[in-house]
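Support reply, case 0932

Customer input (verbatim):
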Amino acid sequence: MKSKHDRLIGLSVLAAWVIALGCRAPVTITPPAGSDIETTLFLIGDAGEPDPREVGVPLESLTVQAAEAPERSIIVFLGDNVYPDGIPEEGEAEWADARRRLDAQVRAVPNGARGIFIPGNHDWAHELAYGLYAIRRQEQMIAALAGGRDVRMLPSNGCPGPVALDVGRLRLIMLDTQWWLHEFIVRDSASNCPTGTIGAVTAELRRQIVAPGEGRVVVATGHHPLMTGGEHGGYCGVTGPFRRFAGRSQDVMSGTNRRMRDSLERAFSAKPPLVYAAGHDHSLQVLHGGHSVEYLLVSGAGSMSKGSCAVTLRESKYTSPRRSGFMRLDIMRGGGVLLRVYRYSGIGSGGLAYETWLEERP
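Our regenerated output:
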């Protein structure tokens, strides 16, 4: 039997080992009262592959939470709303299933809540030549499925944005980042976009991120992340080196993607937003953003069948690979922004996995 002295030494060694590994006891945040929450913003990306037999736990959980106070809830679908090739022309064999995938998400927006769909690369016909027309078909279908509810695609008509929406302290900015990366036609005689060049987009973005008034919370959203520890960052699988050092436009280290990210970051640096949120990688990641944005969120785990790997980077605060889920931002009256991450296993178990104050309460 060990002596008391030996047990104390063992506990000391264990404590030192835990500290050395950077492990900390979980900190529980007392849920804020509903009356203190001004706006709730839900972020879910890459939700375009729901199981045909069921809606899926992430969408169901999101709907239940948004239905608690729909009048203050905004749900942003962060692109890749329809796998694999967006909305085909009516009459094609894939049309009915594409409609079913989109309908599952539109139905997830409870009555009274707002729903916003941002385009992703798969929505642009998986980057094929007719992508501009596929994204317009999706916008039209969303409007038809919404049936008069406040559910829509932004930016609209295949335009790049940015589009700003002000709700209380929140300024929400939507961008179509695939517009930057698409290798085929991105405008025609029907486009009529307020911004039609990269310079015009970044100039307008620089203007929009400076929200008027005190205590404003700026959240910018797009499909492609500015940083990721997932597949598109080149950190996973045998294709990782190719994705990091050559890659395609969909990967963060490609020349085309880097030019887009540099342009966005220069615009953000004029007055860094609190959050830039994206999908694209099928994981849940919370990262420090650096000089151009305070926090980067990757919330591309909306389809239960598509969870993929993600590594922990130096900038990472939280990483959840191979799990489905979504993120929730509660903007408080008078100050404070609470982030909560919900994740689920392949059998549907799970729930709240991480929470932190992105803006401290006064």
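We compared this against your earlier run and they match. Two observations from our side: DSSP finds eight helices and 14 strands in the chain. Residues 131 and 178 are 10 Å apart (CA to CA). Please reopen the case if you see a mismatch on your end.
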